[in-house]
Design goal:
Layout: E1 3-11, E2 15-17, H1 39-45, E3 48-52, H2 53-61, E4 72-75, E5 90-93, H3 97-106, E6 111-115, H4 117-125, E7 131-137, E8 145-146, E9 157-165, E10 169-176
Parallel strand pairs: 1-6, 1-7, 3-4, 3-6, 4-5
Antiparallel strand pairs: 2-8, 7-10, 9-10
Length: about 180
C-alpha cells in the first residue's frame, strides 16, 4: 500500500517557521526527557522521506550528524550536488510530483514522510497526502511560513487520535477522507 504522511510542528496560529525562517520556538517548551513526540515511531513506519530544498538546506545547516536513517529524496530545480558525506543517503529528484513518486515507488519505497512547507502544499494541491500528524506548539508567532496555503477545494479529514506531550503540546493525527 502506498501512503504519504505529513509529520510536522506548527504554532497555534499555523506557522511552521517564524519570521526569517526562525525555528527556535520549536524548543520553547522544556523537554527534559527528550520525548521524541512520535518521531521514532514514524521513522519505523516509513520507507523514505521526500523533502523540499529549503527544508534540506535547513537540516544541513544545523551542523549535526545527519538525523535520518531512511533514504531522503530532495525536490529541487536549483541544487545540482549533494554534500559528499550525504552521498547514498540523499538523492536529488526533479519532475512532476507524480513522476517523482513513480520513481521512488519503483525503487520499492511506498510509505513516505513528506516534509517542508512548499512541498507539503504542492503534494496537497495534487491530492497526494494521505495522513497528517500535526504537532501544535502553544505559541503565537504572528508571521512566518504558513503550513497551509490556499486550496482549490476543501479537503475533508477524519480525526484518528490526539496526544498531549509535556502537558502542553498537542499532536493530532488525521486521515484524508476519500470522497469518491
Amino acid at each position: 500500500m502506498k501512503k504519504n504522511i505529513v509529520f510536522i510542528a506548527k504554532s497555534l496560529d499555523g506557522y511552521i517557521a517564524g519570521k526569517d525562517g526562525n525555528l527556535d520556538w520549536l524548543h520553547a517548551i522544556p523537554n527534559p526527557d527528550n520525548d521524541d513526540m512520535g518521531f521514532n515511531g514514524l521513522m519505523s513506519e516509513i520507507d523514505a522521506i521526500v523533502m523540499g530544498r529549503t527544508t534540506f538546506e535547513t537540516v544541513v545547516s544545523f551542523g549535526v550528524e545527519w538525523p535520518y536513517t531512511k533514504p531522503v529524496f530532495v525536490l529541487s530545480h536549483t541544487l545540482n550536488d549533494i554534500p559528499e558525506h550525504l552521498e547514498n543517503k540523499v538523492f536529488l529528484v526533479r519532475g512532476s510530483l507524480k513522476e517523482v513518486l513513480r520513481i521512488i515507488h519503483e525503487k520499492g519505497w511506498h510509505t513516505l514522510y513528506i516534509d517542508g512547507g512548499q512541498t507539503i502544499q504542492n503534494f496537497l494541491s495534487e491530492g497526494l497526502i494521505d495522513e497528517f500528524r500535526i504537532t501544535t506548539i502553544p505559541i503565537l508567532l504572528g508571521g512566518g511560513t504558513l503550513l497551509f496555503g490556499e486550496l482549490d477545494q476543501s479537503i475533508m479529514l477524519e480525526h484518528i487520535t490526539s496526544k498531549v506531550f509535556l502537558n502542553q503540546i498537542v499532536q493530532d493525527h488525521y486521515r484524508v477522507k476519500d470522497i469518491n
